[in-house]
Amino acid sequence: MRRPKTPDDQLAIMRASIRSDCVDRPGIYRMHSADGEIVYVGKSKRIRTRLLSYFRCSFPEDKGARILRDAVRIDWEYAPSEFAALLLELQQIKRHRPRFNVAMKRDDRNFVFIKVVKSPAPKLLVVRGASDDSAPHYGPFQGARAVNDAVRELHDVLSMRDCSLDTKMHFADQRELFQLMTRTPGCIRYEVKKCLGPCVGGCTEHEYQQRVALARAFLDGHDDGPLATLRHEMVVASDKMEFERAASMRDKLQRLEALKQQFLRFRFAVETLSFIYTVPGYGGEDRVYLIRRGRVRAEDIPPQADRDHRRLAHLTEAVYGTTERDTAQIPTHEIDELLLLSSWFRRFPAELTRTVRAADVGLTRVTASAARTRKSLPPLPDQRAAISA
Prior knowledge:
Layout: H1 8-21, E1 27-32, E2 38-44, H2 47-54, H3 63-68, E3 73-78, H4 82-96, H5 99-104, E4 111-116, E5 124-127, E6 137-142, H6 144-158, H7 175-178, H8 188-191, H9 205-220, H10 225-239, H11 243-272, E7 275-279, E8 287-292, E9 295-300, H12 306-320, H13 332-347, E10 355-356, H14 358-361, H15 366-376
């Protein structure tokens, strides 16, 4: 059922409210429909200017005008900085799932992930974006076609299944099932020795799970077994003068090596995004963010008094003083924040000058470094003056 578009007199009321009440500073805004649904969440470093710009859009040509015509009320929430507004916007989008944000989301369009599908016989699946379940995800990777090819080679070399998700599994240690049912159609990949055949009783569940563990170890960067297998097969084929087969093994090897190089670069990037980041805020609302492996783990104000130093030192020890598993797997609830932080520092590389690594200065001296960084921050211009629409 289509909602009626917001009339012009209601738009005029909304615009007047923004002009009179909204301050031009960093923050987020929410657009509400007549039935109370949050239809869109946005952010801006100059929130008043951004909101007023919606009312200058042409309907229905402009996207902003189409969003506005679905809203009868707009509220906003200030943030200390543009960076803080980005984090708050992400939290709000994940909480409310506004339909315009979901429909227009494009942050992950260039990235794919390798998902280990939950099943008695798991398989690897290339997906765009993270799903809502808790299945392990590896990535992000670029180039969906190349990653799909590499995953197919990984399935082949480890004899893992690549059949549809609704295929019934009948493991060899479930023989009693075969007495109660007719035999399933043969598995072609099992017949040509490219799959263990968990659907036709070709392996036990334990045997299959061992292959899944090998795949995950490869994606974690801990085991090059699949590469060694392909190299061996390539050498054997070459020695037998089976040059076409050797060339095929070489191509498979190159695809898997390209995938490995991608996740090694990704892991390096994730580890690089581990530091303490001091951000100047509007009106002196500075913040210190403790970032580890591409995720904000804690937030505080820059220390001034001894009590502040002790509090930040405690947070720093809690965030950086523990050992985390060395893996390329990213929990699904962290993927969006990782992509956001990667994009932020890629767009504004000068912001890295505001960071300090706990490992470089030591946990006991890191709070002093954050305090010194705060003193050296250039002040933000006062943007309190109203901007006429």
